[in-house]
Amino acid sequence: MAAVVEPAGNNNTEEAVSEEGGEGTPSISEIIRYGAPPEYIPLLVLSFIICVFIIVLFVRAVNEHRRFFTKHTMQGLCTLGIVLTFPVYAIMYYSGIIVPRAMAKVTFLAETYEAISLVFFLRLLFTYMGGKKQTIGKLKGHMVPLANPPLCCLICLPHIKFGKKFMLVHELFILQLFIFQLILGYIDLLIGIDDSHTHPASLIEETYSHYFHGFILLSLLLAIYGLGGIYHAAEEQLKHYQIFRKFILYKAFVTVVKVEELLVTQLAMKVIDSLELDIGVGAIPGELRVHMLCYFLVIVQAAVIFPFLLRAYSTADYPVTPPALSVDSCTDLPMLEFKGDQPLPAVSDYVSFPAAQTLEGPQSGGSEEEETTEITVLAQC
Questions:
Q1: What whole-number distance in Å separates Cα of residue 277 and Cα of residue 275?
Q2: C-alpha angle 209-210-211 in degrees, rounded to nearest 5
Q3: N or C of the chain: less Cβ packing under 10 Å?
Q4: Whose CA is closest to 213, among 227, 194, 197?
Q5: pLDDT level of residue 140 (50, 70, 90 thresholds)
C-alpha cells in the first residue's frame, strides 16, 4: 500500500502519492518535483566541500603512515581504522542529506563501523604493549579503579586487581557492542521506523524502536566502560603515547553525535509541535528538515575534530630503530690532521667508548715532539 506524501504548500495531494516503495520520506524525484527548503542546496554544497576536506586529510594521513606498514602492520591498520571513523560518518551523513530515504540505512552503517572502531582501539593498545600476552603480563596485579567513564562520578567504587579475568570481561564489554549493533540495528532498519517522517508509525513499532535505540545506547556506554578500564590500567606505562588524548577526542565526537540524535532533534520537534509551527517546505516535512540540519551539524563537527585527531595519532607513535653503522672504507670516517706545535685533542672528544682512554696514553717507543703528526681515529660500532 503506497503511503501518501503531503508536500507543504501543495494542495493537490493526489499528485503527491509516492510510487516508490511506499515510504513516507520523499524521494529525490519528489524533492525535485515539489521543491525543497531554501537551505537544502547550500547544505549540499557546504557538506560536499567539508567531506572533500576530510577525505583529503585522511588520504594525507594514509600516505604518512604507509611507510611504517612493513614493520608495524597491525599498529598502522588499527590507527587508520580508528581515524577512518570520521570520514565514514561524514560521507554517510552527507548521503543521508542527498537521499533522505537512505537516512536510516546510512546511520546504521556509520554506527556499525563505530562499533568496529572500538575493537581497533583495543588492538592498538595491545600493539603499544607488545601483544595481548605481554599486556596481561605487564599489567597483572595492578590495582584498577572501577570508577571509569561513564561511571567516573561513582568514586565510591572499589579498586580491583588486573588479571586474565579482568581482561576477558572488559574484552566482552567491547565486543558485545558490535554484536548488538549489528543485530538490533538491522532489525530496526527492517522495521523502517526512521524512514517514516510524514505518517505516524504504529504503537508497537514505536515501542520496539525506542527499546532498540535505548539498548544500543546502553551497549555503547558499556563498551566505552570496558575500553576505559583497560586504558586506565595501562595509562602509566603508555604516557608517552598520550592515550587519554586519543580516546577523549574520539569519545567527544561520538557523544556529541548521540546527544544530537537523541536529545536535540527530539527537543526541537517538541518545541515546534508545542508552538504549532509548520516548517515543512515543498516535499520536505518539518521533522525531516530538522534531521537534515542535525546531519549537517555532525559533518561540521567531524571536520572540526578530525585535524586534532590526526595530530594525536601521528607517526611519532611508531617505534623507530636507529640504523646500524657500517664502515665499508676509511673514506667514510673523518681524517683529523694536526701539524706543528698544535696540541693533540683527546680521543674521548671524538670517540665515546671506554677504549678511548687507552688510546689517549702515549704509545711506547714513540716521540711526542715530531714535526708532523697525523692521527686517524676509526670508530666502528
A1: 5
A2: 90
A3: N
A4: 194
A5: confident
Q: What share of the chain is helix, strand, coil (3-state, %, to 5)?
A: 60, 5, 35
pLDDT digits (tens, 9 = 90+) for 35-62: 788 888 999 999 999 999 999 999 999 9
Shared-domain flag, residues 36 and 182: yes
Q: 146, 165, 142, 172: which is closest to 233 by C-alpha?
A: 142
Rounded to whole angstroms, what are the CA distances from 152 to 161, 173, 222, 232?
A: 18, 17, 13, 12
Single-letter amino acid code for the residue at 100: P
DSSP 8-state code for residue 42: H
Q: What is the DSSP letter of 199?
A: S
CA distances for 11 relative to 6, 40, 76, 281, angstroms: 8, 22, 57, 13
CA distance 216 to 224: 12
DSSP-assigned states of every residue in 245-305: HHHHHHHHHHHHHHHIIIIIHHHHHHHHHHTT----BBTB-HHHHHHHHHHHHHHHHHHHH
| pLDDT tens digits along 368-380 | 444 444 444 444 4
Is residue 223 within 8 Å of 118, Cβ to Cβ?
yes
Both 81 and 203 in one domain: the answer is: yes
- pLDDT higher than threshold 70 for residue 364: no
- Per DSSP bridges, beta strands 372-375 and 159-161 are unpaired
Same domain, 86 and 158: yes
Residue 100: how many CB atoms within 10 A of its CB? 27
